[in-house]
Amino acid sequence: MKLDKSALKKSLTGILPPVTMPFDEKGHLVPNAIAPQIDWIFESGADAVVAGGSTGEGHALNDGEFRDAMAATHEAVNGRKPFVAGLIVNSTLEAIERVRLLDGMKVDALQVTPVHYLFKPGPEATIEHFRQIWEECGIPILIYNVIPWNYLSADLMLKIMDEVPGVVGMKQSSGDLKSLSDLVQNAKPDNLVLSGIDALLYSAFAMGADGAISALTSALPGATSKLFKLTREGKHEEALEIHWKLNSLWNVLRHDNLPACVKYIQHRQGLPMYGPRAPMEPVSAEQKKAIDAALRGLI
Fold first, then answer.
1. Which of 12, 23, 68, 203 has its CA 20 to 30 A from that of 29?
2. pTM of structure
């Protein structure tokens, strides 16, 4: 299968916010609440959306919920901008079976984690994992490099992109800016290098990263879109002003309930308030107070 990687890279460059999953008080998914969020994300200036990632609590969705969430996202996007479906899976077969739940939907790319349970495959098995998903599904793949105990080196990701035609790019989610630097420097021109390092979005953009998929892009699609645009235009003084504000906000967000924090920040900008899926903790009153203070000048 022949891919126009340059065209795909162009379409997936910029700010690609993760869609947060709206759960009611009992933890049930509310699919009809996804469309207003996507409208808001696009109106804020984002370039695409990703559903089923970490900020979207994709790890907590069963197959039926995954299908419902992807269908609601697909319908809401309605071809306006690219739609990336996230797979947080523990085996090659599970990944392929999840993609089959997307039948009938136009999905521009898959965001796929390495397997994340205790056992870590070697480099060749990891390459084969991505190869089989591509060959079975035929949808372009972004490596989602986020699993701490199965963290892929820059060299391995570059090798996967070289050897598997359908792996078109990756999202680097560690705070290791050196790895991102190596990826930007050594990736082929049609490879997509995206950042998921929230505290260093400006740094990533200044080095030449093609965009970002991260919690802050979901919480503040307008501010992060502006940051990306300013950096690309070489307006670094203005970009740094946004960076420092985002950094102050990031410093008060707890990683353990980050999706809940993102939903609260979205709510502060007019979206309905939804909680995380248990046992993730909701945003506490103390957290809300700290977030509210850090949001001044951002919304």
1. 12
2. 0.97
